[in-house]
Amino acid sequence: MDRKNPEVSVVVPLLNERDNIGPLYEQITQVLTDKYDYEIIFVDDGSSDDSFAVLARLQKQDVALRVIRFRRNFGQTAALGAGFAHARGKIIIAIDADLQNDPADIPELIAKLNEGFDVVSGWRKKRHDNAITRRLPSVIANWLIAKITGVKLHDFGCTLKAYRSEVLAETKLYGEMHRFIPALASWNGARIAECVVNHRPRTAGTAKYGLGRTLKVILDLITVKFLGSFSTKPIYIFGGLGLLSAFGAATAGLAVLYQKFISDSHLAMNRNPLLVLTALLITATIQFILMGLLAELLVRTYHESQNRPTYVIKEILESPADDGDEE
Fold first, then answer.
1. What would the pLDDT profile of 112-129 be if each residue is shown by its tens digit?
2. How far apart are CA 200 and CA 81, in angstroms?
3. pTM of the full structure
4. What is the per-residue pLDDT for 327?
5. Which CATH superfamily is domain 8-228 in?
6. Distance between the two ends of the chain, CA-based, in angstroms?
7. In 3-state terms, what secondary structure has residue 69?
8. Which residue blocks in 181-312 are alpha helix, DSSP H?
């Protein structure tokens, strides 16, 4: 096994999944052993149960297993980002730790990737989740994301995905944006595919997400759309709003002049609500234009600044690279 340059890296973000870690580890190793040079990276996102103790025990037994432990809970996106940043494989697989994703689907995802695609997303066609709190919001969210981003996938929220490492190297993750990786990658020219995967009912632990996540998805979707369309030219959106506001100000101003000098209404200028509207729209025009210019400066600062991760690692458990390598 080539531990320095494995073919496949499997990244597993987790939070309080002590009962699922062992079975998941065994299933992953059974699927990958004798098929690929691989590594498994578990990212403990600040678990408060015995998850890290279980991981530490497994890591001592397997040089292909690496464990990243956060100081506190930073969220699934940060956990995936840390796993991606430390992955050494040419192909990176992301999978949930709750055993609802099936590791047996990994070879099929890799085979699809090898057909020339850059990202292969799992599609949980038959989901074993609560219809009201999980499946219905997911259907709505997936429709919205596909409509707004232009990437036609059925299941953006499925963690089980296969990526080429160079695609992830170009993608920075923030907020809850891990589900938008296919859209972000597609905008960079990556080829995206979808593959139906098995979805199993949860048998241990508790779900970490509910209806409250829907609002975050909507807000992140707005951010993703802005980043995809205006991240390098924010003046276009703010300037566009400014021009629209200027048009409204001009229209309202002309209406005021018409009423004052041409119409028979002879409404007093200081009592005309359109005059107030004109002043407000002129102010809004100036603010939008200035906001766009400031956004341009911020964008340039962002793209020229050093990249900083959105997580803090407490410790990393792994065997020395020279130990356990086989010729």
1. 999 999 999 999 888 876
2. 25
3. 0.73
4. 44
5. Spore Coat Polysaccharide Biosynthesis Protein SpsA; Chain A (3.90.550.10)
6. 7
7. strand
8. 181-187, 213-230, 234-261, 273-304
